[in-house]
Amino acid sequence: MKKYIPNILTISRILATPLILYFGIQKQFLLLIVIGGLIAFTDFLDGKLARLWKVKSELGAKLDAIADKCFALSLLAILIYYNHYFFYVLVLEGLISLFNIYVFYKYKVVQSLMIGKIKTWVIFITILLGFANILLDGKLPITIFVNITAIFQIASLIQYVNSYVVLKSQKKNDQLLNKEYLRIVKPILDNKEFKKRKEFPHHYNESVYDHVLRVSYDCFKIGKKKNLDYKALAIAGLLHDFYDKPWQSDFEKKPFFQKHGFTHAENARCNAKKYFPKLMNEKIESMISTHMFPLNKRIPKYKESWILTLVDKADSLDFLFHPLLMSKKIRKSTQKKGNRVSK
User: Is the pTM of this model over 0.70?
Assistant: First the structure.
């Protein structure tokens, strides 16, 4: 239930919108202050519980943004009738909402900034004071609070725009990286023999093709960032497991040091040289043949070789300890023990 409770609290703010509008029409301002305060508290509570229980999700972030806007805009719509200064708060909040919708539509990203959270709480406080001011016949200096809220809204909008510019730059950079990467590896990806690796199982629920593609791209990005030979990393990353046949289907009895883990790197190097001779050089061949260190006898010679070796290990460990794979192993182990006991 823990993963549902924060979202239920968030949805409660959306469902409360018609109720808030009804109480506003009925001029039940004291009730609005009480209900508004309680609902505003859910904004703090849902985030706190999501972090505490580690159940934060993209859906929760989207719902939270929608709930805040529905709640604030419905209350502001009522207040404008009694105090025209709140019109500026409504317009600014509407602009922020439209801008965030645009960013989400374009990049499928929910922008969440600390100043945005602070701004939301400032709006809630100002709104509650606005209703209190109605009950007190205008005795509160509400104009000051409205101006403070507007300042926070303008600052938030500036930060959201700045965040969008950074996000746009990152996306553009990623697109350029993808294009450059594809130009480097296109001869390999188009090769019929290499495509056969789509049918080679590797780790849990993944083919050799999928595995080497991820390793290759990760190595390429690291190489670009560290000003290393990223082309060699992209090529060697794709071809490091370019061995002849799936090791799962090899039932031939072999000496321990002739098993797949000890030999497939050299096998992959030979195939790489056979099918892609124009792409090969001494560094790439060395990277492929040493990527299984320490199982192979040769120590990685280049910085790029170490990157390939470590990225490949990290990717493999991620799948070896996959929860579904682990549960499958546990079930098999339990079944074997059960069979022994029954015998």
Answer: no
Q: Give one DSSP letter per residue of 150-167, joined into a string.
A: HHHHHHHHHHHHHHHHHH
Q: How far apart are CA 289 and CA 268, in angstroms?
A: 7
Cite the residue boundaries of each domain of the chain with CATH code 1.10.3210.10.
192-322
Question: CA-CA distances (angstroms) from residue 212 to 72, 86, 221?
Answer: 49, 57, 14
Give alpha helix (H) positions in 26-85: 29-52, 58-82
Q: Which of 264, 214, 263 is nearest to 234 (CA)?
A: 214
Q: Is 67 left (phi over 0), alpha (psi -120 to 50) or beta?
A: alpha
Find the Cα–Cα–Cα–Cα dihedral 263, 264, 268, 269, rounded to 10°: -30
CB-side neighbour CA atoms (13 Å) of 322: 11
Structurally, what CATH architecture does the domain formed by 192-322 represent?
Orthogonal Bundle (1.10)
**Range(s) of the chain covered by CATH 1.20.120.1760:** 5-159
Distance CA 181, CA 222 (A): 12
| Mean pLDDT in order along the chain per 10 residues (343 residues) | 78 82 82 79 76 71 77 85 88 89 80 82 88 87 92 92 84 79 93 92 81 92 93 95 82 78 91 94 95 86 94 74 44 46 42
Residue 62 carries which side chain, given as an amino acid letter? K
Does domain 5-159 fall under CATH 1.20.120.1760? My reply is yes
CA 32 to chain centre: 38
73: three-class secondary structure by DSSP: helix
What are the residues whose beta carbons fall under 8 Å from the beta carbon of 13, sequence distance 6 or more?
39, 42, 43, 67, 68, 70, 71
Cα–Cα distance, 108 to 146 (Å, whole number):
32
Pair of tokens at residue 78: 């009522």
Rounded Cα distance, 321 and 327, in Å: 10
**Which stretches of 240-302 are DSSP H helices?**
260-275, 282-289
- Asked if 286 and 302 count as a contact pair (C-beta separation under 8 A), the reply is yes
For the record, the structure tokens of 246 come out as: 């799936």
